[in-house]
Task: structure prediction
Amino acid sequence: MPQALYTFLESYDFSGKTIIPFCPHGGSGFSRTEDTIAELQPGATVSEDGLAISRSQVADSAEDIAAWAESLGL
Result:
């Protein structure tokens, strides 16, 4: 996870909120990102419905991202 996200998550309280992670990646997927977010925001719910897209698929992922976002029902 980029250092800027650590700083962001350490600076704000998302208790009672749901965090839905999404990221492009170079092959590691979420790695431990979901666990790290949960550790930094213990009062928040970290959704397991996140989206991780390989860097080789990012350019062609608009439809997948739109379908994922719609599936969240927000």
